[in-house]
Amino acid sequence: MSETRTTTLLVIGGGPGGYVAAIRAGQLGVPTIVVEGRQPGGTCLNIGCIPSKALIHAAQEYERAREYAGASPLGISVQAPVIDIARTVAWKDGIVSRLTGGVEALLKKNGVQLVRGWARVLDGKTVEVDTGQGAQRIQCEHLLLAAGSEPMPLPSMPFGGKVISSTEALSPTAIPGRLVVVGGGYIGLELGTVYRKLGAEVTVVEAQDRILPTYDAELTKPVAAALARMGVQLCLGRKVLGMNAAGDAVRVQDASGAETALPADQVLLAIGRRPRTQGWGLEALQLDRAGNALRIDDQCRTSMRNVWAIGDIAGEPMLAHRAMAQGEMVAELVAGQRRRFAPAAIPAVCFTDPEIVTAGLAPSQAQAAGLDCLAAAFPFAANGRAMTLDATDGFVRVVARRDNHLIVGWQAVGRGVSELAAAFSQSLEMGARLEDVAGTIHAHPTLGEAVQEAALRALGHALHI
Ligand code: FAD
Ligand code: NAD
């Protein structure tokens, strides 16, 4: 055993939660060590947000080229395109390395020490790290748990062989002929769409009676319609029983008990992720739980003094930007600042084709919260920019209080709407009213004009519909 190191803040996990906390702590002069078992950047940069968005983009470009090889309404024609999947994956890996290298450089620039290895918690102030060259003990005043999450297994269908998680799906060596996706949520639909566009026959099996059950049904309809146009089969309201005896089909059961076998060369299991709370000594701290996750308060404190938790290990919503915002806050708290985690909204984007973006309350959520609200939508079919992009599916919707017009939620579905997340979140965080957005000059021609028009429509005087 080498010497024991001491620090003020010890962060376990170098994902978006942990690395942002460490950078901010470094900026504030708090002595900080981050322990990371893999590459810095966590799930998000290495095997999550970034690689999936790279593949989504590549698949979209490929699909577009294939459309042009048929008959393009734009007057473009090309020879039948081919895709070299190894080069696509190498391009994606290049982006990942640039970003993970960037995180390492930022940690260094801010005086944060990165210790590579797997941490084991000994007590609330002491951690032992298996660095591969012996164990190292680190003692701290503040322990920040940012160990993230891992794919949820299905007892009847363990990972291995044909059954892969998003991690393997993000580094394909070949595109399977027939892919069965279990789970019609974020990962299932984002990556299911990628594989379909890259040529696989894709079937999505979802336990609920519709895809993306956490989003409101109006938003998911254009996505379901686009999946149908692409030829993705949806098996809704089905229970997965496991692989068949030959190992070449997935057995599913409908509500009546009838069983079907879905032929599969590969199975992507994407039924959610679980907080990584086991196998590294955390159990000994006996921290309070909220289901599988660590229970935290509005300052990300766990039930043990000076032990904090952020990001996926602290449960839903498991989103990178939430983890980052929590990490920044904890660093500032450790540095002695007064902070609370009380965002007006945590936006969410599903990068399907078309994309979905939400921030704040949907009409049904506003109603459930006892708010008397009005809601208005503006369709992209009436937006000039959407027409020039040949992408008129979808709409922007605003939800606002009827009495004072305070905006409480935004939703949109359509091509490229992920970029509206900034406008949505800013308006909610700044307490904008319908009149504020309606009275703001929006550049023409942009998709953002649909945001202004939705507000105008809620006020009863939309201009372009
Ligand atoms: P993680 O990013 O999981 O990082 C935790 C880190 O801790 C890991 O690097 C791990 O190696 C390390 N670690 C764990 N245990 C130990 C230990 N004992 N010792 C040392 N190191 C340890 N979110 C979005 O907001 N937008 C998206 O588009 C998006 N796309 C996604 C796509 C996919 C395919 C997946 C899987 C996830 C996606 N997510 C997305 C979710 C996002 O990746 C997570 O919410 C985010 O990474 C959580 O950050 P975190 O810091 O809490 O944990
Ligand atoms: P998810 O929760 O988004 O979707 C899982 C889906 O699987 C749900 O629709 C659920 O009803 C279904 N399901 C559960 N058990 C099932 C079963 N036995 N058979 C069939 N269907 C079943 O989870 P995910 O897609 O695995 O993604 C995990 C998390 O990663 C997400 O919750 C999200 O927080 C994060 N993520 C975010 C993004 C993004 O922000 N764009 C992208 C990917 C992942």
Automatic annotation (TrEMBL):
Taxonomic superkingdom: Bacteria
The FAD/NAD(P)-binding domain, residue ranges: 9-327
Free-text cofactor note: Binds 1 FAD per subunit.
Domain spans labelled Pyridine nucleotide-disulphide oxidoreductase dimerisation: 346-455
Keyword line: Disulfide bond, FAD, Flavoprotein, NAD, Oxidoreductase, Redox-active center
Gene Ontology MF terms: dihydrolipoyl dehydrogenase (NADH) activity
Reported cofactor(s): FAD
Catalytic reaction equation(s): N(6)-[(R)-dihydrolipoyl]-L-lysyl-[protein] + NAD(+) = N(6)-[(R)-lipoyl]-L-lysyl-[protein] + NADH + H(+)
EC identifiers of the protein: 1.8.1.4
PROSITE patterns associated with the record: PYRIDINE_REDOX_1 (PS00076)
Family under the similarity heading: Belongs to the class-I pyridine nucleotide-disulfide oxidoreductase family.
Alphabetized NCBIfam families for the sequence: lipoamide_DH
PANTHER family: DIHYDROLIPOYL DEHYDROGENASE, DISULFIDE OXIDOREDUCTASE
Additional remark text: The active site is a redox-active disulfide bond.
Annotated protein name in UniProt: Dihydrolipoyl dehydrogenase
